[in-house]
Amino acid sequence: xxxxxxxxxxxxxxxxxxxxxxxxxxxxxxxxxxxxxxxxxxxxxxxxxxxxxxxxxxxxxxxxxxxxxxxxxxxxxxxxxxxxxxxxxxxxxxxxxxxxxxxxxxxxxxxxxxxxxxxxxxxxxxxxxxxxxxxxxxxxxxxxxxxxxxxxxxxxxxxxxxxxxxxxxxxxxxxxxxxxxxxxxxxxxxxxxxxxxxxxxxxxxxxxxxxxxxxxxxxxxxxxxxxxxxxxxxxxxxxxxxxxxxxxxxxxxxxxxxxxxxxxxxxxxxxxxxxxxxxxxxxxxxxxxxxxxxxxxxxx
Length: 300
Description:
two-stranded antiparallel sheet
């Protein structure tokens, strides 16, 4: 056998839906896996061009694409999915991978692996963005919590067959609108109060990320929610959004940080030399302040 055999090898694992991805959808998921994996290597490689005290945003961004790589590997392998009864049956029924079964049947393949990805990566994306704005930690943390609510309600809705799924969708939308408010409202004010480099970077990445995130509920409504589009089309819709919102958005953010030191954003990150210097100064102070400062080593 040659070519992509993932659907044959993993057939029936997690259950067999009436409507699921075909080899075309699996091939697309593998392509996105490659993009996410390559982006992870690039972001980690670029981090080594900076001092350790300036690698935070590289590490966060690389973590996002690393988790996405694992999720897309799972979906390309047709794993991390479960068949769920649809609220709106459309078209023909039959085994998901049979030729001609492009219509929607009684059960649809729902990739919970996608939501595991999002519950980890979307808070990290917000962390990347809101740290750039210099926003206070309490506001960042509560916004990340609201983001978790958004993702979890999306999963609960996707796993619900009845019309109650739209209740979860509504709760998720309220959470999303709160996030948009924080990003385009207070976030922009904090960023503009720091300097022009921070303001410029935030004004590009903030609205871009929120615009992309507002497209996800549309994809959800057409796929898991309304059962309108085929899972292969769902794969392309979500895949394009994820590529734009993770590696491409991350690259833009990293580029924007080229002239921004973390200390400018209120982030105090100590290297080992600075920690030793601080400890030496404390020791000298405790012994009557007899210290000439010669042992102090600046952060690399």
